[in-house]
Specification:
alpha/beta
Length: 193
């Protein structure tokens, strides 16, 4: 006969299970590391340094969301954050992807804008996306502060960062949820203090 199919749980049961697992994943966020990231961002702001943020897929959306929150919400008084998402220039990203390769799309932008002392923040659930790994390698080579938001085992990205915010989880959705919450912790710290 055919293979057996398992019946999907009721949606509310699935949602409850997801929530329980998400709360467990959030418990793995190291709040001391979040505090260190706040200090790195505060120092960059106070020294008029740039902050660059990048990621792929859902992490690209989180990078853009974080930058939006920091530009609009956390920059209501002086000094303001000089922050940009390297994910937001589609013409630049597609030109480099088409003509050179996707692995350089963030590094090439950093070559135009980043300077020693700036901050580069990379988000990757797997930690193995070549373009974010290359971006952090370049940022380190020119003396930038580097922050990585990672999941799973941290991949290649985790050890490259001077500061790593890690969600100890294997499920990509819950890793991305954890990254978004960490970004909100960072942003809302500046919005509310």
């Amino acid at each position: 006969m055919g293979s057996e199919t398992t019946e999907a749980p009721p949606p509310e049961t699935f949602a409850g299970q997801y929530k329980t697992k998400l709360l467990r994943a959030l418990e793995t966020l190291d709040l001391e590391t979040i505090g260190q990231a706040v200090e790195i961002l505060r120092e960059a702001r106070d020294q008029n340094r740039h902050i660059f943020v990048c990621g792929n897929g859902g992490s690209a959306s989180t990078a853009s969301h974080f930058v939006c929150d920091m530009v609009k919400g956390a920059s209501q008084r002086d000094p303001r954050f000089r922050i940009m998402a390297l994910t937001d220039s589609l013409p630049t990203i597609t030109a480099y992807s088409n003509d050179v390769g996707y692995a350089c799309v963030f590094t090439e932008q950093l070559k135009n804008f980043a300077q020693k002392g700036d901050v580069v923040m990379a988000l990757s659930g797997s930690g193995n996306s070549a373009n974010v790994v290359n971006a952090l390698e370049y940022a380190n080579s020119i003396g930038c502060q580097t922050i990585a938001l990672t999941g799973r085992d941290g991949g290649k990205l985790g050890p490259l960062a001077k500061l790593r915010i890690h969600v100890a989880e294997s499920h990509m959705g819950r890793i991305e949820d954890g990254h978004m919450i960490a970004c909100h912790m960072l942003c809302y710290y500046f919005m509310e203090n």
